[in-house]
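Hello again,

I reread your note about wanting to compare the complex against the isolated chains. To keep things tidy I'm splitting this into two emails, and this first one only covers the full assembly. Below are the input lines as submitted, including protein chains and any nucleic acid or small-molecule components. They are followed by the predicted structure of everything together. The single-chain runs will come separately.
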Amino acid sequence: MFGKSKRRQFETLFQPHLDAAYNLARYLCGNAYDAEDIVQDAYLRAYRAFDEYNDSNSRAWILTITRNASFSWMRKHRMNLDVSFDEDSHGAENDVLSPDAAKYETPEGIAGSEFNQQLVRRAIELLPIEFREVTVLRELEDLSYREIGIVLGIPKGTVMSRLARARKRLQELLANVNEQERQ
Amino acid sequence: MKCDKVQVALNAYVDKELSSVQVQEIEAHLHSCANCGDSYRELTQLKAAIKSSNIRDSAPTHLRKRVSDTIREHKQEPHRRFGNLTWLAYSFPALVLGMAIGWAAVSHLNALQIQDIQTQSLVSAHVRSLMADHLIDIASSDSHTVKPWFHGRLDFSPPVEDLTQYGYPLLGGRLDYVAEQLAAALVYRHRQHKINLFISPKSRITIKKDSTEYNGYNIIHWDDGHLSYWAVSDLNRTDLEHFKELLNGKASPE
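Full-complex prediction:
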């Protein structure tokens, strides 16, 4: 009786954020398969902690938990949290930032500011994790600085400066591709 | 505002996170600084590029179900902790139902027992009246003699009818106790069989069965107006039913 209504309440609040949670987990852990495990873990954690949820921002709340679950998963799998993806495990074969791969992925090539979908994805994936998460939350999930601050546990001003550095790095990565493409 | 600060603030500007005062400051700077203007255009291009790349991943459909199932399964955990209580909670309605059925059965049995006792008391009264010299208090085949005799002896007035012409002569009447209630008993005879007709106000004796049989005696019960009637006899049921119908004026003579 009670359990059912609590579950219903939980699902009403947090099921709408499943895409956001999955997307964040997907970009943090780097693959779709593990992202599912992370999201499942995150929602279970959230459900266990549901009594502590204080009617604030449900999206920021579930994304905070998803981020924590992602970091737990990465620690467990001994992933380096300080730097971007290991180039060895994401070798040239599937590295779309390499010129050959870029050609393969984009028959028409890259013109001006039109970045290929896969190149943008790959560039974001190559960002150091602290830049990656702030980029995903801002550009893919459209969170406000305040919400990002809640999820990352940092002040709004820090959100802005971190985003500035992340975008600079992202521009460099994409410019590098453009440069390689022109050669 | 210096360019290095503007370079950072431009991010909040493109993200529409600045106050109107801050927006005016930035826009004033952009008009006068080509370098920061370039940065602004690059930022808007980057944002547009990401937006148009459509690289946000949606949760697979099966994940939605998987998460739902996980939570539903988790729901059981607190219940497991109070396993016994859960069991009790689920079995409580069954328990109540069981008790209700039990209570109903006991009440029904009780009612049956009461009915049996009352039926038994009717038969006992009938048998006693035949054994002891107490069949008749007022011996008369004249209903006009028997009927007034009950006045003052009972708080109700039983109808008394002689059915001699129908083969059921009235032998007389007496007072009797049936189921601990004072009742009028009229005695009739059909061939060699005696019939005791017990009459009592309806609510006092609660035998509900229309007719029954007890130790070889037939008992026929009916209500008429505010009075209840029980005809008790070793007479066969058919004749006893006929007797009843004669009393009710519904039957023709034999």
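For quick reference: Chain A touches chain B through 46 residues (CB under 8 Å).

B.
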